[in-house]
Amino acid sequence: MAGQSFLLDISMLLGLMAILSSCGSCSFHTELSLEEATLKDLQRAFYQNKLTSRQLVEFYLEQVRRLNPILKGIIEVNPDALDQASRADLERKKSSPRSLSPLHGIPVLVKDNIATKDKLNTTAGSFALLGSVVPRDAGVVTKLRMAGAIIFGKASLSEWSYFRSNALPSGWSARGGQGKNPYTMGEPCGSSSGSAISVAANMVTVSLGTETDGSILCPSTLNSVVGIKPTVGLTSRAGVVPISSRQDTVGPICRTVSDAAYVLEAIVGADRYDNSTIEASKYIPKGGYGQFLRAGGLKGKRIGIVREFYDFGPDDTFYTQAYEKVVKTLKKGGAILVDNLMIDNLEQIFDGSSGEQIALLAEFKISLNAYLKELVASPIRSLSDAIEFNKKNSKLENLEYGQEEFLKAEATNGIGDAEKAALARLAKLSKDGFERLMIKNKLDAVAAPGSLISPVFAIGGFPGVSVPAGYDPQGNPYGICFGGLKGFEPRLIEIAYGFERLTKSRKPPSIKRQ
Q1: What is the predicted pLDDT for the residue at 399?
Q2: pLDDT tens digits for 247-289?
Q3: What positions does the domain Amidase occupy (predicted)?
C-alpha cells in the first residue's frame, strides 16, 4: 500500500508540475477574473495565495444564484461544498500529497444520474427517485474525491438520460425544469444538458456528463464547450443510473481541452464494481493525458473526412463554408487530410435498421432493474414501478404520453433472438464500417461537424472529442468532433488541443442576469 501511495503522489506531482509549468515567474493581476478561468489559472492562484477554494466556491454559488433561475443547469448544490473547500484549503497549507492533484480544491458538477453518497439526491431528474439512498459513491465520484475535487452539486439533464420519451423536449426533467442554452435560450440538447449549460455559463469550473449516444457530444457542441466521450469502459459506470453497459460512458464537459484532459485523467481506471474497466485500463497511457496537450498536436496526424457529414445542401451556405474553413484549419495545422472517404453501411446506422434501439430497450430494462434493486432505499424498485409512478403523477389523459420508451422497454423480455440478431448486426456494422475505414486508411481520427457522427461512435464504444469551432450569424454555437478507435484518446486530445490553439473559437455567452 505504501508503494501505491508513493506512485500516486508522484503522479499527482507530475500533473501539478505540468499544469503550472508555463507560469515561471509570472504573477496575476490583483483581481483574478474567475469567469472562464481554467484549472491552470486556478491552481496558479491557489499557490500564489491569491485565491482559496472557499472563495472559488463562494463565487460559483453567487453565479448559480444569479443565473440558474434562468438557465436551470443545476438541480441541487451540495450543502457541504463550502466545508469541502475549507478542508482543501487546509490540506494545501499543510502540503498534503493530495493537494498536488490538478483537481484539488476544484468544484466539479456531476450529472444527476451519477451517484454521490452524501446529502445530494441521485434521481436522473425524476421525482420517482427523490429520496432514494445509494449504496456508495459512483466509481468516478470516488476517483474525484481521491483527487481532492469538491463535489459542487448535481447537473440537470434530460430526464432518465432522454430514455423516457422522445416526445419530451431535450434538457427537460420534472425535477430540474427546462434547461436553456445560454447562447440562444433555446433547447440545449441532451441528455447531459445541465453539465454543458453550467460550464458554458461559468456556474462551475468543470463537470461530468454521460453518453449512450450523443449525450456528451451534442450538448458540448451546441453550448460551445469541450466534451470528451471516452472509450466505453475507460471510466467506471458503477453507480450511474444506466441505459446500456455496452454503450454507456462517463466523461468530462469543460471549457477547454486541457481542463477536459485533466478531468479525464482523474476519473479513468479500474473499478471492482465495473468489470469493463479492467479490460479498458490497458488503454490508459503511462504519465496521464496531460502530456498530450501539445500546441503542434495536429502536425502529421492523418484525419479522415467523410463528406456525407458535410453535405448541408445548397440552402445552407453558411455551414458549408464554415466547415470548409475548419477543414482548411486542420490542414494549416499540419494534419494530413484523407478526404472523400465513405463509411460502409452508414445509411443503415442512421435509418433505424441498425438494431441499436432494439438492443437498448432490452438492455435498459435489465440494467435499470438491477440498479434500482441495489439501492439501500427507494420509492421505486423496477422499471414497471417507474411507469406506474409517472401514470399516477400525470395530469394528462393519455398516460402513455411522455414515457413511450419506458413502455417499449418494459415490453421486452431479456436478450432474446431479436436482440441477439440486433447485437450481431451492430458489431458487424462497426467492424465493416468505422473500424475498417480507420485501419485501411491508417487514420488517427475522423473529423465530422457537430455531433452528427455520434451514432457511429456509440454502437462501437468508440471515443470522441467535441471542440468549439465558431458561431453562426444568429449566435448559435457549432463545433467539430474528432473520433477514433478504442483507446485513441491520446491522439484525439492532441488533435483537439492543436485545433483549439489555432482557432481559440470559444467566447462566453452574454446572459441577462437577475
Answers
A1: 75
A2: 999 999 999 999 999 999 999 999 999 999 999 999 999 999 9
A3: 56-454
How far apart are the C-alpha atoms of 240 and 129, rounded to whole Å? Answer: 13
DSSP string, 435-446: IHHHHHTT-SEE
CB 352 within 8 A of CB 505: no
**What number is the average pLDDT over the span 59-64?**
98
- Nearest Cα to Cα of residue 310 among 493, 57, 480: 480
Instruction: Decide if 132 is catalytic.
Output: no
| Alpha-carbon span 32 to 14, nearest angstrom | 25
Closest CA to 460 of 440, 480, 441, 432: 432
Residue 324, number of CB atoms within 10 A of its CB: 11
Catalytic pick among 192, 215, 354, 451: 215
Give me the domains of the chain, ranges plus CATH numbers.
31-292 (3.90.1300.10), 356-419 (no CATH)
Q: Which residues, 6+ apart, have CB-to-CB distance to 197 below 8 Å?
A: 71, 72, 73, 155, 156, 171, 179, 180, 181, 182, 188, 203, 219, 223
- Give ∠ CA 55-56-62 in degrees, rounded to 5: 90
Q: Which of 40, 72, 111, 180 is catalytic?
A: 111
Task: Read off φ and ψ for residue 466, nearest 5 degrees.
Answer: -105, 135
Q: Which of 191, 193, 224, 378 is catalytic?
A: 191
Q: Is 192 a catalytic residue?
A: no
When pLDDT is averaged across residues 363-372 and rounded to a whole number, the result is 98
Q: How confident is the model at residue 5 (pLDDT cuts 50, 70, 90)?
A: very low
Check if the beta carbon of residue 382 is closer than 8 Å to that of residue 145: no
**Nearest-10 crossing angle of helices 39-47, 2-20:** 100
Q: What is the pLDDT of residues 474-497, one digit of tens each?
A: 999 999 999 999 999 999 999 999
User: How big is the chain by its Cα radius of gyration, in Å?
Assistant: 22
**Predicted confidence (pLDDT) at residue 1 exceeds the cutoff of 80:** no
- Are the C-beta atoms of 497 and 297 separated by less than 8 Å? yes
Give this prediction's pTM. Answer: 0.94
191 catalytic? Reply is yes
* Separation of alpha carbons 213 and 217, rounded Å: 9
> Of the given ranges (9-13, 176-180, 383-387), which has the lowest mean pLDDT?
9-13
The answer to whether 496 and 447 are in contact (CB under 8 A) is no
